[in-house]
Write a structure and sequence with these properties.
With about 220 residues, the protein is an alpha+beta fold. The protein is about 30% helix and about 25% strand. Helix 6 (about 165-175) runs antiparallel to helix 7 (about 180-190).
Length: about 220
């Protein structure tokens, strides 16, 4: 039994509990600076006024370019297949945009079926090309046989014509950004590699007559 008149010992509070109790007590008195941490409120206020690194990062806009996928097809003479879109002035490789939920290879197979009416096996990746507005994937469609070439059925809602043309002629028929891409596609197919290209708009018309300057990255075995 406890002796009468002897004060009962108070259980020791943890530092956290003591600190919280002092905050409550001092806030009730109008003083928001606890005795245990006289500079806590000041430091907290200063920290709130400093720009936070995460706040600066959250203001940046991540790059989300459009994604396009196509194929390079050839005939028995080594000429490349180009198509004439009804919504553009210049020619292009068969292909189009990658839809949600599709891989670039799946999109290429679908676009070839929709645009040409063909379902040939699509080979490996020849080129990945980056531009500020779009990311391109070009796959190896291989050589189309005479029968396959005769079975090409263009989508009337998308294409007006198609043609197999030599590489030099193809360069004059393509939009400016696709011309350096074509050179990389042909080189990748000749080397059996996969190539990477960055296309940057140039103000030096002498160095880049088409307005685009290509910067090729390292190639990898296909």
């Amino acid at each position: 039994m406890e002796s009468v008149g002897k004060k009962r010992a108070r259980p020791r509070q943890s530092f956290t509990a003591q600190f919280e109790a002092e905050i409550v007590e001092l806030c009730q008195r109008g003083d928001r600076t606890p005795r245990s941490e006289p500079a806590a409120a000041t430091r907290h206020q200063q920290a709130r006024q400093r720009p936070h690194r995460l706040d600066r990062v959250s203001e940046l806009t991540p790059a989300r370019p459009l994604v396009s996928s196509g194929a390079a097809f050839f005939d028995d003479e080594g000429r490349i297949l180009l198509v004439d879109p009804i919504y553009r002035d210049l020619w292009n490789l068969p292909g189009g945009g990658v839809d949600d939920g599709e891989t670039p290879h799946q999109a290429c197979v679908r676009e070839v079926r929709e645009e040409l009416g063909l379902t040939p096996p699509i080979g490996g990746l020849l080129l990945t090309a980056w531009t500020p507005a779009k990311l391109y994937f070009v796959f190896d469609g291989g050589v189309l046989s005479a029968r396959q070439r005769a079975e090409i059925t263009l989508s009337p809602d998308e294409l007006a014509a198609h043609a197999f043309v030599p590489a030099e002629q193809a360069r004059t028929m393509l939009p400016d950004p696709l011309r350096p891409m074509l050179a990389e596609v042909l080189q990748a197919r000749a080397d059996g590699t996969t190539r990477y290209l960055e296309l940057i708009r140039s103000t030096d018309r002498a160095a880049a007559p088409g307005g685009w300057r290509g910067r090729a990255g390292p190639s990898a075995p296909a």
